[in-house]
Amino acid sequence: MRVAALALLLFATACAPVQEAVDNTARQGAKGVVTETLATRFPQVPKQLITPFTDCIIDNSSALEIRDFARAAIVGVDEQTVTTVRTVLSRPETVQCLQSRALSSGII
Fold first, then answer.
1. SS3 (DSSP) at 99
2. Which of 33, 40, 99, 100 sits most deeply, having the most CB atoms within 10 A of its CB?
3. Could you tell me how far CA 69 lies from the centroid of its own chain?
4. Residue 82 · residue 33 · CB < 8 Å
5. Residue 24 above 80 pLDDT?
6. Which residues contact 55 (CB under 8 A, 6 or more apart)?
7. What are the phi and psi torsion angles at 85 (to 5°)?
8. Are 86 and 98 within 8 A, CB to CB?
9. In a 3-state reduction of DSSP, which class is residue 60?
10. How far is the C-alpha of 43 from the C-alpha of 51, rounded, in Å?
11. CA nearest neighbour of 36 among 76, 92, 80
């Protein structure tokens, strides 16, 4: 029993770096999609805030939302992508992040 538990623990530990690498790759693809979506579908976002806004959106997205963004990196931005960005933008945590980034950049 202890051997099985130890083997499971070692297997889980070995998988963590792989999972982290997959997550980082998905987030990088997602960032490109969110940046494109903000630039093309949200003209009210000042150009100099697109990168900070992208970071706030990615940081406040769920794993499923990141997956949707990563999918859009392959198939292209569509209305589902825009809806997902809008959903993340409406969260209080995202709004707070956006305000902080805008203030620190001197835009508002």
1. helix
2. 33
3. 7
4. no
5. no
6. 31, 97, 101
7. -60, -45
8. no
9. coil
10. 14
11. 76
